[in-house]
Specification:
By secondary structure, this protein is α+β, with helices and mostly antiparallel strands. 30% of the residues lie in helices and 12% in strands. The protein starts with a strand and ends in a 5-residue tail after the last helix.
């Protein structure tokens, strides 16, 4: 099995194929941005992108990413660690209170903005419904996504 994660090619051994993807990313590759919130795919804390589609890593096996381009929050930053405009927008808009949901929320928003770079607030609200946040009340998150949308397209 072969996959690309954050622009780096990985050969995945067959023993890993049946492992939980979230556990593999966190424990074997030290990509700890995706969190284990509920373990059932209901909270979105474990969201990653596979071929630019938001995926709940806690609900997938490693074999799911065979041949796919995977992006985790660790791969969002640019050269020299410069934050992606969406990440910076979350900071600027105060959408990062405890930070537990932030990686999954950012990746869900990134996948959405790649498809729709001129969304309405209602479209953004609907796009992030698979992700739960217990701190911000969502308004700052929606503001951050709306603010960052101008950088897509």
């Amino acid at each position: 099995m072969k996959t690309t994660i954050n622009n780096k090619v990985y050969e995945l051994n067959d023993e890993a194929a049946d492992r939980n993807l979230l556990d593999y990313l966190r424990e074997e590759l030290d990509l700890t941005g995706a969190k284990n919130g509920c373990g059932k795919g209901l909270c979105g804390a474990c969201t990653i992108l596979a071929d630019n589609k938001a995926v709940k890593a806690c609900r997938q096996k490693v074999s799911f990413i065979d041949g796919k381009e995977v992006l985790t929050i660790e791969g969002m930053s640019g050269p020299g660690g410069k934050l992606h405009p969406l990440q910076q927008s979350f900071i600027d808009c105060g959408a990062v209170q405890c930070g537990f949901c932030t990686p999954g929320m950012i990746l869900t928003a990134h996948a959405f903005l790649l498809k729709n770079n001129n969304p309405s607030r209602d479209e953004v609200r609907k796009a992030i419904t698979p992700n739960l946040c217990r701190c911000t009340g969502y308004q700052q998150i929606i503001d951050a996504i709306m603010n960052a949308a101008v950088n897509y397209g």
